[in-house]
Amino acid sequence: MLTRSFSTRLNSFGIGLGKKYPDESWTTVKLIAEAAKVKGLTSLELNYPEHFVKNSVDEVKAALAATHLNVKAIQLRWPAPKFSNGGFANTDESIRRAAIDTVKEASKVARDFGVDHVLLWPAHDGYEYPLQMDYVKSWNAFRDALIELADENPDIRYSIEFKPAEPRGRTLLNTTGAVLKMLSDVDRKNVGVTLDFGHLLMAGENPAQSAAMCLKDGKMFGLQLNDSHGAADDGLLVGSIHLSETIELAYYLVREKYEGTFYFDTDPVRENPVRECEMNIERMKHVLAKAEKLAKFTPTGDALASSQLLWEASVGS
User: Parallel, antiparallel, or unpaired: how do β-strands 6-8 and 262-264 relate?
Assistant: First the structure.
């Protein structure tokens, strides 16, 4: 069995009691100390530039050294309002160039932490109205930005985390298929995808099918786990609503030998964030253990047989 890394959203530890975002009293160093209280947590993924505004790289390194936690990736967040009209696909070339340069800065930070993975969430590359975005020009601009980054930084793996909407009405890369098409156009070994369970549900996709296709192509660099009611990015506990889909996803992760991090992108707005993260880890370990037992099974098209197998894995025989 593979040794697995369990990581989580650092900002989750500064929320709760009805707060959805950390207030000004929270620094990255304080958040790391809180995250270190979680049993079973092995790693963190830091946001750039957000988590390096109040604390320097050296201060963050020192805070991590005082814990058992390591860093597995740097997550790029293009801040609004500067990038509210887009990053790689912005029609203003100076802002587009700034978006690319921000990723280059994040790549340097990744090297500072000894990691090779930079995750890109193109939150603002989208539109609200018909004829607002030139889809072809925007696509080409996005593609060219990725090619530039991949070629200049062959030691860094870039992955795209897609989301069909929020904060934009619609996004340029709004489905797993769209991302895979972009990866085909870019055609670089160090450019891949990070799948988010809740985002897949928002897009009307089956997470297991999406993951299977990305794993098949060797393009699944990252995975973000959570649950939701499907209409929005609720960020709920793993397996709390879509347990069957979570088990099926784990089946393909085990069968196709996913070796990336298991990252929990959840929002414990009213819950104790430390206990909530522990429950995510406990649940995912349990689900993966079930998937290990299912790994030798091959779907045959027999709906009743597969349904019975999943039922037994979910609630017992």
Answer: parallel
